[in-house]
Specification:
This protein is of the alpha+beta class and 856 residues long. It is 51% helix and 20% strand. Helix 1 (3-14) crosses helix 9, helix 2 crosses helix 9 and helix 7 packs antiparallel against helix 22.
């Protein structure tokens, strides 16, 4: 270590406060980069495990293939694992009390390759089946069916097939295991099978869909099974070539091909380049802002250091130090700061994300049924990138101060004349300033003009902090809106579906269900689909671009009508701020649900169809084109989705309208029919307790209906939305702390460096009151100028992020006004408070000591 390096170390030790501030500033930058990389990697890991827990580990699936398909799939050199299963039959346990899901779909897994081990389930008791005749069922099946089966017990199950008439030919065809209730379904007994129960577990919705009429039982394929198989294959080393690999397998095995697109997407593999460019473009904007903020933050620290060490560099020059040695002194200081700041920043970023994950661990445990805990995933490549970027940031931040230090003339540096090089004209202020601000306020303005470099360094720090905080807030705000568009916000736990029956009987049963205790909200609804044509002037420009136009210039569209019972309709109108009275008594009026959310591939759009909807008269036909003309008048427009529509993706060429049951009944009279299928949707305080009451009510009334269970799906969606909110708001909180610390350190350090200046003002007789007034005007000037620059730049960056996301998530442009208000208040608070505390400390110092001392 040469004399220059030892002198640099001694100077850093003497100015401990400045050194600590610089190290903390650099560590904060490293922590931000580390946190961003950890959040991205951990979030993708969490989403991958979410999909794996629901669907299982497979990349492509082939349904309806022959017994030769598994061997053909394994023969490919890129294939990793192959899962083979086949639907053996349905069982209908006679002791089951669950009339809604009376069936057990018996799936046989291939024991040769341990296919059952890759099924998406969690064993609670026992083991997986190892041979034919062994059975594993779900805990949900035993509980809802009221079956007291124990592991090791032998059960005899009546087996058979489920058949339903084809809509076109009327021929009886097999019913899919995942199908909900089907009209005209029949049970065809074929015999019975004896099984030994070897395990009880918790099945995922991918394995046992909650909307299905059957539960799932897992056994092994018997020898010589000749039925159709379902083969799921995973790639050994998945990459962007997975789709080519899947196509190659499909040519060998045939059948219906399905890719696990959701899992592949979270693995970074997709055939939608637009979506990837959207996500990486948004991420690049945020990382760019963080890098700019990091460079400015560390540069500001080095600039302050250079301003204070001017005398030192002048003395070094006077004793023969070369430009290279002075430049090396600054780089050596940057290297020492990096050696301390980079490990500290890595640890701080990891600890911050670790604490965030710990706070939401219980939610994740509940979501994954205690099988998939949330964890911090440290990717070596991501950490290495953060270290390299941090080192580059330190080098770039020190480059300009190092070049400036090498060019400082010794005489100017010793005199300190380089810090203040002005003419009287440059500090001149207008007479209006003296009248508005007083002498002390004008003195504050002149101070900012005297030490221009220090003033600009402080202003730059405030400006970057404002832009960094608002950009991070805007990005998380837009990502939250984009993610909410991808998740169906189902607002009900159960749907009770009535078959075609008389209105009086249906109304009586619906009223009885809605009167059951434990219901938070319910709605009885009927639906009708119709067709209409609209003129170009009736549609908005965006609707005309999204809908096909016929040769005669008209636009053919569909219309989906939902009818609500009177109580539900009134509750909805109250929430939406509309009058319910015009809709009642068969008025033929309805509420247009607009805008509608619809999806095309990976693109999500909000679309307003009608240009001037209020008062519009629409004429449509239901069913056949030759049917009677039905008339509808739009009496209101609302973006509030009622219970039957909430969470459902719309269609770019279909209107959604809400009407009363009286209006709906009038249309049915015109159609010549007295009834249609109806549904009761229920949200319950305790879904499981309500379901047991529902089954009891069905037994008492001896009625027939089907129930679709959305409780698990709704629970997963709500928890997933909560997780995303915790991720994004945790990131905003981290950035807020970073920006606050940056402003605090910059202002307090700037005040500390002005000790001589303040001591001089006190020595010439400025009063304490006048001094405080001068500093208040300086603080106000800093805050106003930083906001005047930062707010417009942040809004432009927000527009840039919106334009990037707009390619896949089309929603109206808006700004997070709460974050903007917080930025305004935070700037004035974080400028004024550290300045006041620093000044209070300076007031206790001796004036002569402050004039002599050069160190912080």
């Amino acid at each position: 270590m040469n004399i220059i390096h030892r002198l640099t170390l001694k100077n850093m030790a003497q100015n401990r406060r400045r050194t600590l501030v610089t190290v903390l500033g650099a560590a904060v930058s490293v922590a931000m980069l580390t946190a961003v990389s950890l959040i991205a990697v951990s979030f993708l890991d969490m989403m991958q495990r979410t999909v794996l827990a629901d669907t299982g580990d497979w990349h492509v699936r082939f349904e309806g293939v022959s017994a030769a398909a598994p061997a053909a799939a394994r023969a490919d050199s890129q294939t990793g694992s192959v899962t083979t299963r086949g639907l053996l039959s349905y069982a209908k346990p006679p002791e089951s009390l669950d009339t809604q899901r009376p069936y057990l779909a018996l799936w046989g897994y291939d024991p040769a390759d341990q296919s059952a081990a890759r099924a998406p389930l969690t064993l609670e008791e026992g083991r997986l089946p190892e041979r034919a005749g062994e059975l594993v069922v779900s805990r949900a099946f035993l509980e809802t069916s009221a079956l007291d089966w124990q592991v090791g017990q032998q059960v005899v199950l009546p087996t058979g097939r489920r058949l339903a008439p084809d809509e076109q030919s009327g021929e009886l065809l097999p019913v899919s295991p995942s199908s909900p209730a089907v009209d005209g379904e029949q049970w065809l007994p074929e015999g019975s099978e004896r099984y030994t129960l070897v395990g009880i577990g918790s099945f995922s919705t991918g394995l046992e869909p909650s909307w299905s009429r059957s539960y799932t039982g897992i056994t092994c394929l018997p020898g010589g099974y000749g039925g159709q198989l379902e083969v799921s294959a995973s790639m050994a080393h998945p990459d962007r070539g997975v789709y080519d690999w899947g196509d190659r397998l499909w040519e060998q095995v045939g059948g219906a091909r399905t890719y696990n697109s959701e899992l592949l997407f979270y693995m970074g593999i997709t055939d939608d380049n637009t979506l990837y460019s959207t996500l990486f473009g948004a991420l690049a904007i945020v990382c760019g802002v963080i890098l700019v903020g990091s460079v400015s933050l560390i540069y500001n620290a080095f600039a302050i250091s250079l301003a204070e060490r001017g005398h030192t560099f002048g003395m070094l020059s006077s004793v023969g130090a070369t430009r290279r040695q002075k430049r090396g002194s600054v780089f050596f200081e940057a290297a020492l700061i990096g050696a301390a700041a980079i490990p500290l920043g890595l640890f701080a970023g990891w600890l911050g994300i670790k604490i965030t994950f710990a706070c939401i661990g219980s939610i994740v445990q509940e979501m994954f049924r205690a099988a998939q805990p949330l964890r911090v995933v440290i990717a070596p490549a991501a950490v290495g990138a953060a270290v390299l970027l941090s080192a580059a940031v330190l080098f770039l931040s020190a480059w300009v101060p190092a070049q400036r230090a090498s060019r400082i003339p010794p005489i100017e540096a010793i005199r300190g004349s380089r810090q203040v090089r002005i003419s009287p004209r440059q500090v001149r202020t207008s007479p209006i300033s003296r009248k508005l601000l007083g002498f002390e306020g004008e003195l504050g303005l002149k101070n900012s003009k005297c030490s221009r470099s220090r003033y600009l360094a402080t202003l730059l720090s405030l400006f970057v902090s404002v832009v960094l905080f608002l950009t991070a807030s805007t990005f998380t705000y837009y990502m939250g809106r984009s993610f909410s568009m991808t998740v169906e916000d189902v607002q009900f736990d159960y749907t009770v579906n009535f078959p075609y029956t008389g209105d009086s009987q249906r109304d009586r049963l619906a009223a009885g269900i809605q009167a059951l205790p434990g219901i938070e909200e319910s709605a009885c609804t009927q639906s009708l689909y119709g067709q209409l044509t609209l003129r170009p002037e009736q549609l908005t420009a965006e609707a005309r671009s999204a809908i096909w136009q016929r040769g005669d210039g008209l636009y053919p569209m569909g219309i989906q009508v939902y009818a609500l019972d009177e109580a539900s309709l009134q509750n909805y109108c109250r929430r939406a701020g509309l009058e319910a009275a015009p809709l009642l008594s068969g008025s033929g009026k309805g509420i247009l649900l607009s805008p509608q959310l619809y999806r095309v591939g990976h693109e999500f759009r909000e679309l307003r169809h009608l240009a001037d909807p209020l008062g519009s008269e629409l004429t449509f036909v239901a069913g056949e084109v030759e049917g009677p003309q039905l008339r509808l008048q739009i009496a209101g427009v609302s973006s509030e989705a009622p219970m039957p529509v909430a969470g459902a993706m719309g269609n770019s060429s279909t209107l959604a309208v809400l009407v009363s049951q009286d209006t709906f009944a009038g249309w049915l009279d015109q159609l010549g029919t007295d009834s249609r299928t109806a549904s009761v949707m229920v949200r319950a305080a305790d879904p499981d307790l309500f379901y047991s009451r529902l089954l009891q009510y069905q037994k008492e009334t001896r009625s027939e209906w089907s129930v679709t269970d959305f409780t698990r799906y709704r629970e997963q969606n709500s928890q997933l939305l909560l997780l995303v909110e915790v991720f994004v708001y945790g990131f905003v909180a981290l950035v807020a702390v970073v920006c606050g610390a940056n402003i605090w350190n910059t202002v307090s350090t700037g005040v500390a460096l002005r000790r001589r200046e303040f001591a001089m003002l006190h020595s010439v007789g400025i009063s304490p009151r006048g001094f405080q007034r001068m500093m208040r005007w300086e603080s106000l000037s800093y805050g106003v100028k930083a906001l005047a620059l930062g707010l417009p730049v942040s809004a432009l960056l927000a527009l840039g992020i919106y334009r990037v996301l707009e390619r896949n998530f089309a929603f109206a442009f808006s700004l997070p006004w709460g974050a903007y208000l917080a930025a305004v208040l935070g700037v004035f608070l974080l400028v004024g408070l550290p300045m006041a505390l620093s000044l209070r400390k300076l007031r206790r110092e001796n004036v002569m000591d402050a004039l002599k001392n050069e160190n912080l």
